Structures are given as C-alpha cells and as structure tokens.
C-alpha cells in the first residue's frame, strides 16, 4: 500500500455541541500526490480506523465510499461516523463509543483492551485513489476536542456562568453578566437593566400591518377587515370539500371517478355486472359477467366430484373394478369391499339355520316348531296330518272350520261316533270284540303278508339296519362271541400282535409274533448300533464300515501324505489319495496364509487390484515412521498435476465459522448486512503451515460489510496493518488469502484480487 503526504487543514472537528448526542467527527485535509499535483479523483474511498495509543488494537473501523474530489484541489471534508461500519460488526456502537476510557473495548482480531481514563487514541486513515489503497502516514493522534462528546457524562460541580452538579444546574450568569431573579413571576421575561439581567413585564405589542383577510379557494367567510370567521367550504356539489358525516362516513356522492378503492370496505349496495371480476375455482365466470358456471362440486365441499352417476359412485365408494358380488363394509373410518363381512348376518343358527354370504336357503330344524311357537289362529286341514299316533294327557281337542271339538275321556275310554251327538267318550266293551281289519301287508324289513284272515309276519333277513336300531340299544349281552377269538391282551415288549379282519372290517383272529429286544445302551455317548451278524452292540463308525456298491470298503487311502487330499474315483467306486496340485483362492474364507505362500504382487498396496493406492485409517508416512498428516513425505516429492480442495459456496448469515482445515479454498456468500467470518483453530501438526484462500462473494443485494475474526488467542495481521476493502457490487467477488503456522497465533492476511 502506497503512502501519500497529506496537508491537514483541520482534523477531527466535532460536529455537535457539548450537550448534543455524540454522532460524528469531522475530518478535513488535503491530499497531494507524489508529483506535487492534488488528488481530484471522482470516487475516493476512505477507511478510518481508531486504535489504542500503541496502534496495535483497532477498536473502530468504517469505510466511506464515493467521495467526489473533482476540482477540489485535493481538499476533502468528510464525517467519521457517516460511513459503513465494518468493526465492530454487530451491535450499537458509534465512533464516539470508541473514545470511551475505563471500559472494555473489543479489538479487531478477537482480543479486548481497557484503557486508562486519560488515554488518547490514534486515527489511521487509508484512501482509494482509483489505482490502489494509500495509507496516510503517520497516524493522527486524537486529543481533547473529540472528547467533548462525552460531556453529558460529567458528574462533577460546574463553575463559570453555571454552578452546581449536573442534575441541579443553576444559571448564575449569561456571558459573564449576572442574573438576578428577584421579583420573578409568571409571564415575566429577562431584561438587561445595564448591569445585570432582571425579571421584567413584557411590553404590550403594537398594531400590526395586516388590514384584511380574504377567504381563498375552499374557504368562505371573507373579506375580514377587523374580526370574523373563515370556514371550510363543505358540500357535495362541484368544487365543494367533503365533510365526514355522522358515523365517520362520507356523504353519498357519485364515485364513478374514484380509483384504487378497497372493496373490503364496501358494506351495502350492488356492483354492476361489468365491474365483477373473473371467478376461478369451483365456481368460474368471465370478468364483467354475472353468469356463474359450476363444473363439479368437490367431495370436500359436500359434492361428488363428478357429473355422472357412475363417476360419482367411483369417487364416493372404493373402486368397484373386479369387486362384483362383494359386500361394502366400514371399519368406522373407511370403507372397503369384502367377501365376508366382519359384522352383519353371515350365518343363522338355532331353530332356523342358514349360511352366507349372499342368497342362501334357510332350514327349520327338526322338532323346532312346537305349540309355543305357533301363533293363535287357523291351521288349514291340509296342514294337519294324523297319520301318526295322537296322544294327550288331558283330552282330545279337534277343530273344524267353525268350532272346536273338545272332549276329556277317562282311563280306558275310547271315542265313539254317533250321528246325532257326534264324538263321545265310551268305555271299552267288557268282553272285547272283533275288529274290522280286512288285510295286513308286510312293510319294509318284514316278510309274510298279505294277510286277510290270519297269518305270520316275520323280520326279513337284513331287515334291521342301523336306522332301525336306536343308539345305545345294543349291549354287550346282545353280542355273540366272535368265533376264533379268545379274550385277553395281545402284544408285549418282545411280541407284536397279528390281527386278521374280514371284508366288513370285523376282527376274525388275533395272534402274536415274537421280536428281538434292543441291546442295553452303551455307557459311552455317541455310539451307533452295529450288528455282528447275530447281535447288536454300540460301536463307533469307522471308514472301514462305509462300503461301496460292491460291498468293499469305500476308502482305499491307507495313509495319505501331508501334501495329499482325498478324492472320489468313479472308476473304482472308492475314495483315494491324491496330491494337491493347485487350490482356488476363492475357496479360502478364513484363517491366515503365510507370507511365503503369497506372490510378490500380493505385497503391493492397492485397492482391489485396481492399481489405486488406498488407505482408510490413520496417517501414511513415506520415509518416516511417525507420519503426522494423512500423507507425510520425508524427502523430495514429484507431482505431475495438483488440484486444491475447494468447498461449495456457503451463505455466511450474520456470522460464520470456518469449520476446519480440511480444504485450502473456501467459497462464501455474504448474506447479511454485516457478516463476521471466524478463521478456524489451527494448532497441529507442529511445524506445519496452513494456507487458506477465501472467495468472498456479495449476494444479490450487495454492499455487505465483512469483518474477519479468529479463534480465541489468535489475531489477524494485515498487509500494511490495514484491513482491505472488499468489492461491494451485487455478485462481485473478492479473494483474500491467510497463512498461519501451527505453533504461532497470528494469521497473516492480504487481498490478492478484487472484482472491478
């Protein structure tokens, strides 16, 4: 950075009184170039830095851009505090805050400083002359005048024209002239009596020069020459001014010429069709038309979402495709088609039975209909069948179409028909009598008939089957002993029964067959049963026990050597020894292979035979056994091509910390009015340097301010001790570079390129 000589006409002039709120410092001077001519560049930029007395701690920095020095003969006059502050990057902090003593101030770079009450400051000024940044040297010392900005913080006793503490200030003099308030009262003013200021009565005013007032446009009531009233000309006709009526509303007028009205405030009246907007959504219309079109009513608004019955069903019900004959069932939340409903009537049980789903035939169970289940009423004759025997405990009840026949007979009485009296009870004849049966015919299962006078009816052979035999009617006493069988128990631990049955499954004979018992188990586990031709015994399985198809031993191996294995020979139908000629490495899945068994190529360091060097853990050392980095080369290294690692662009926001030193190039987009970027911590490996290049890009808004911070204990030292000014245009890029040694605490920074 070049250095210019500067002729200062007046530096650091306060732009406020002692009682005003501190805001700005005025900095004036003249810039003369090295050839003796004044600087008259049309867009000069200034960087103002306020430091502690040593110049090492920058407590305030701002930049003023676009200062026009055309035809200025090198003279400038600018206000410190009016530019873009870049440090401190956040919070409320004015230029005068940097002049406070006895409080902790942050230094650019991360540290803090607390200066004694009477400490001064240095002002460091750099400017851009169109070709580069120039440093005004030496730094200017800030002395007493700017500190007047802190007069409001004074708490001591005052003297001179005023006296007393700050909170109870008394004005005793005005410009050295005493003030005597004796006789002061409301309405009086201070008046100079020749030696001091005293209370005095305000003199009566004299006649003015206004002789008449005429009402102009919008006013009525003039002309007034002495006294009168001017009023606003209100009304609803041409040229009148509208007056708000009762209810804070304007009177009714023709609003056809009104524009930019808010329709949300219209509460009554009708809009003409030509003023209607176009409607969209479920109901549509054209602009300026009152005709509305309803295409479909969506399901969410109570409709079907369709214009046809079939589509409406498909929209409201689950898809019907492939679900013919199924039931629609709901689980309380949704509906679906099912073959058998979880609820509803799937089957009937009890007196009436049926099974579903779908149409099915219901069946009344046998004996299910009794008198208790028959409703009182008439039963047709065709529904009465007396083919079976009728019994009753108390009497006989018969009904025809009009009346009941009800008779209760005594024991051993019978019903007798009389043509005059109908049915009546009558005792059995005491001597019996002959019947009038004329013929008896043998039915199913009987032989013998027909009998017209007398004869014999017998049970036919096979006439009694399981249908005629009631359950439980056949007892053991009714069964004859089956021939060839003897009662007893058949079968034992040493014999099994032989059972013979006929074609109808009846047992005709039983005998036993003796068997040999198993030998007692061996006391040793893992034994197998082995026969010696006569007996079984527990024995181990040997190769000699395994036979081939010819009955000989299946193993012809004798004693195999250490370098041999066993193979099967289809020719001899035996297992035989053979030398191990080769082994497929793919068959080896476990264990360790001795290094002597491996080829020289096996010791090459590569990734799956792809000739790519690869190591996934730890550090790799070449020429050193104590590698301190992922790749540590002790000696010369030849590189044919080199590429730096680079990160993608990252938005910084108000603050962003570079996470690590994994790459050397970082790309950042400034996305906040002030963006603070903190450099990473870098303390290892010892004896190594780390170079970091930052591509700093303005976002679409542009004019973002940048400050560089460091990890605790570190600091930044810029080229020429001045932080560079970055490009501010939207999308513009500035390239900054930083270098730091692992065993040092200083980042050395510089700007290597700036757009435009």
From TrEMBL:
The keyword Signal appears for this protein: yes
Signal peptide: 1-20
Swiss-Prot/TrEMBL keywords: Signal
UniProt-recorded name of the protein: Cell wall surface anchor family protein
């Amino acid at each position: 950075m070049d250095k210019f000589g500067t002729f200062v006409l007046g530096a650091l002039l306060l732009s406020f009184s002692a009682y005003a709120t501190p805001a700005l410092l005025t900095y004036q001077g003249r810039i003369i170039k090295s050839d003796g001519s004044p600087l008259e560049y049309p867009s000069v930029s200034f960087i103002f830095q306020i430091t502690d007395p040593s110049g090492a701690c920058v407590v305030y920095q701002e930049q003023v851009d676009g200062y026009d020095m055309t035809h200025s003969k090198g003279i400038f006059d600018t206000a410190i505090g009016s530019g873009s502050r870049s440090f401190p990057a956040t919070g409320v902090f004015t230029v005068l805050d940097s002049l406070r003593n006895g409080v902790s101030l942050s230094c650019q770079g991360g540290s803090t400083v607390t200066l004694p009450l009477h400490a001064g400051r240095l002002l460091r000024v750099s400017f851009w002359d169109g070709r580069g940044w120039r440093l005004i040297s030496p730094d200017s010392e800030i002395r007493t005048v700017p500190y007047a900005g802190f007069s409001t913080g004074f708490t001591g006793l005052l003297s001179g024209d005023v006296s007393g503490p700050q909170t109870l200030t008394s004005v005793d003099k005005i410009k050295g002239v005493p003030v005597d308030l004796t006789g002061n009262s409301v309405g009086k003013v201070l008046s100079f009596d020749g030696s001091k200021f005293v209370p005095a009565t305000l003199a009566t005013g004299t006649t003015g020069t206004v002789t008449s007032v005429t009402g102009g446009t919008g006013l009525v009531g003039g002309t007034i020459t002495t006294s009168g009233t001017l009023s606003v000309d209100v009304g609803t006709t041409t040229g009148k001014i509208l007056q708000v009526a009762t209810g804070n509303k304007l009177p009714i007028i023709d609003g056809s010429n009104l524009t930019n009205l808010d329709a949300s405030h219209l509460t009554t009246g009708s809009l003409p069709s030509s003023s209607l907007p176009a409607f969209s959504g479920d109901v549509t219309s054209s602009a300026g038309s009152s005709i509305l079109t309803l295409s479909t009513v969506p399901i969410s608004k109570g409709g079907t979402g369709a214009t046809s019955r079939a589509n409406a069903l498909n929209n409201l019900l689950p898809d019907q495709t492939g679900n013919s004959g199924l039931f629609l069932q709901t689980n309380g939340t949704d509906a679906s088609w099912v073959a058998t409903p979880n609820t509803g009537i799937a089957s009937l049980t009890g007196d009436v039975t049926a099974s579903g789903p779908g149409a099915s035939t219901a069946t009344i169970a046998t004996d299910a209909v009794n008198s208790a289940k028959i409703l009182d009423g008439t039963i047709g004759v065709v529904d009465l069948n007396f083919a079976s025997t009728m019994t009753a405990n108390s009497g006989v009840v018969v009904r025809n179409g009009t009346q009941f026949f009800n008779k209760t007979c005594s024991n051993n009485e019978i019903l007798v028909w009389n043509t005059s009296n109908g049915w009546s009870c009558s005792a059995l004849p005491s001597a019996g009598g002959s019947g009038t049966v004329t013929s008896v015919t043998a039915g199913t299962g009987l032989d013998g008939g027909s009998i017209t006078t007398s004869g014999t009816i017998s049970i036919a052979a096979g006439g009694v089957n399981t249908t005629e035999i009631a359950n439980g009617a056949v007892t053991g006493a009714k069964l004859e002993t089956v021939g060839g069988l003897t009662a007893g128990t058949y079968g034992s631990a040493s014999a099994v029964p032989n059972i013979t049955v006929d074609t109808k499954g009846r047992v005709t004979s039983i005998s036993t067959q003796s068997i040999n018992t198993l030998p007692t188990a061996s006391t040793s586990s893992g034994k197998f049963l082995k026969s010696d031709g006569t007996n079984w015994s527990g024995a181990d399985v040997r190769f000699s026990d395994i036979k081939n198809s010819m009955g000989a031993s299946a193993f012809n191996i004798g004693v195999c050597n250490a370098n041999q294995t066993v193979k099967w020979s289809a020719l001899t139908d035996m297992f035989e020894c053979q030398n191990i000629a080769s082994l497929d490495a793919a068959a080896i899945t476990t264990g360790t292979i001795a290094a002597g068994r491996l080829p020289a190529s096996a010791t090459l360091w590569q990734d799956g035979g792809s000739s790519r060097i690869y190591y996934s853990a730890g550090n790799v050392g070449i020429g050193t056994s104590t590698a301190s980095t992922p790749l540590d080369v002790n000696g010369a290294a030849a590189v044919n091509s080199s590429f730096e690692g680079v990160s993608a662009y990252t938005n910084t926001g108000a603050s962003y910390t570079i996470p690590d030193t994994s790459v050397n190039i970082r790309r950042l987009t400034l996305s906040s009015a002030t963006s603070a970027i903190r450099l990473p911590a870098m303390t290892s490996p010892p004896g190594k340097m780390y170079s970091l290049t930052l591509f700093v890009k303005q976002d679409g808004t542009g004019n973002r301010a940048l400050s560089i911070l460091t990890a605790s204990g570190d600091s930044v030292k810029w080229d020429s001790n001045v932080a560079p000014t970055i490009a501010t245009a939207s999308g513009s890029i500035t390239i900054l570079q930083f270098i730091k040694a692992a065993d040092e605490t200083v980042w050395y920074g510089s700007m290597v390129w700036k757009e435009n």
